[in-house]
């Protein structure tokens, strides 16, 4: 059983890599410039709906896999669900970087992380019993959130350092990938040999408190998950292509389109899967899916640097994009504090960290829009 799950995880990550290399290897995106604006908008919206629909299915599949393999909801959410739901975003960032849209590629990654972190606050609103971060206590999620902050700090260091590349790739890019892999290993060790334990309360919901009744085989569920991931990835490529063209036609900066347009659309699977997981009672899967997805989203930066052929992508982005990096760091720190403090009830029935996350994201969005 564990061997089947391991193969499924690596197949999911391999699928992401194949999609990214396939799209990045193209010299250019299809000629969307010849299509009318209404068609582009319809394609953008249609792909958004498809991504949202499949996101619901992927949450159910991941919950079943977590129950069957006994690897834990937090770990499954972080590795499998996080990577699977993020494939649309990584294809969008990689394909747009391949055509030289550096700001759109990186702001899509950072805007997606910011939006997905804010989605946890929305899930907190949906879970009315108690603060979500209180009920979904998990040492794995604490470790993953810490690794995420490292993954976001590294690109800021690269941006502030002198530009240097090897084959047009910044040396920090492989370091970023290595840090992600170490983070996954760290999550596995925390799950298998935990040294910290959250205090159980009457509001804590463990993984054993709910179970799935689906009788389909693990192989079939894994296949459905992989097929959904592939379709979501293709939809993400179309979102990226139409996003670049709409940015030019509507006179909106790539940073705004990336952080508030393509980022939100390609992050819809995370929103849908998080809400669906909360409704199913899979709270650790919900939180783990967001944090793990955010970790995987940090790899968008690495894949974008590889696809960007004009040098280091870290030195081709604007200060507006670096602002989103700093905002993501602050939002992740707020989330980490919330996971540690585990407040039972805050204003309007949600935790204070959720209020702050919504406020931080909204403030960042308003600032970016006001700058044009």
CATH architecture, by name, is: Up-down Bundle
How much helix is in the residues? over 70%
Strand content: under 5%
Give the CATH superfamily: NCX, central ion-binding region
Main location: membrane
Subcellular location: Membrane
Pfam families: Na_Ca_ex
Keywords: Membrane, Transmembrane, Transmembrane helix
Structure description:
This is Cation:H+ antiporter. With 372 residues, the chain is mainly alpha-helical. The protein has one domain: Up-down Bundle (A middle domain of Talin 1), CATH 1.20.1420. It contains 13 helices and no strands. Helix 6 packs antiparallel against helix 12. The longest helix has 33 residues.
């Amino acid at each position: 059983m564990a061997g089947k799950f391991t193969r499924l995880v690596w197949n999911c990550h391999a699928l992401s890599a194949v999609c990214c290399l396939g799209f990045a290897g193209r010299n250019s995106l299809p000629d969307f410039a010849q299509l009318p604006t209404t068609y582009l908008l319809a394609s953008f919206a249609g792909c958004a709906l498809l991504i949202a629909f499949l996101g619901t299915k992927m949450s159910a599949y991941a919950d079943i896999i977590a129950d069957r393999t006994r690897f834990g909801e937090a770990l499954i959410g972080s590795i499998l669900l996080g990577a699977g739901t993020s494939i649309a975003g990584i294809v969008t960032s990689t394909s747009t970087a391949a055509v030289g849209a550096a700001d759109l590629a990186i702001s899509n990654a950072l805007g997606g992380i910011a939006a997905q972190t804010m989605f946890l606050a929305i899930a907190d609103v949906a879970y009315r019993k108690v603060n979500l971060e209180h009920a979904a206590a998990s040492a794995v999620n604490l470790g993953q959130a810490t690794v995420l902050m490292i993954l976001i700090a590294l690109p800021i260091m690269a941006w502030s350092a002198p530009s240097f590349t090897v084959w047009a790739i910044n040396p920090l890019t492989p370091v970023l990938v290595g840090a992600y892999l170490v983070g996954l290993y760290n999550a596995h060790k925390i799950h298998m040999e935990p040294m910290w334990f959250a205090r159980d309360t009457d509001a804590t919901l463990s993984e054993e408190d709910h179970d799935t009744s689906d009788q389909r085989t693990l192989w079939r569920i894994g296949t459905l998950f992989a097929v959904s991931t592939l379709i979501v990835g293709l939809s993400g490529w179309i979102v990226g292509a139409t996003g670049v063209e709409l940015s030019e036609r509507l006179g909106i900066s790539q940073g705004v389109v990336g952080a508030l347009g393509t980022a939100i659309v390609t992050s819809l699977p995370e929103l849908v899967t998080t809400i669906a997981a909360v409704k199913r009672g899979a709270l650790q899967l919900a939180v783990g899916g967001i944090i793990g997805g955010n970790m995987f989203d940090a790899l968008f930066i690495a894949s974008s640097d590889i696809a960007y052929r004009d040098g280091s992508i870290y030195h081709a982005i604007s200060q507006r994009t670096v602002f989103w990096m700093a905002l993501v760091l602050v939002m992740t720190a707020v989330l980490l504090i919330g996971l540690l403090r585990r407040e039972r009830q805050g204003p309007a029935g949600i935790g204070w960290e959720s209020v702050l996350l919504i406020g931080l994201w909204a403030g960042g969005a308003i600032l970016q829009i006001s700058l044009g």
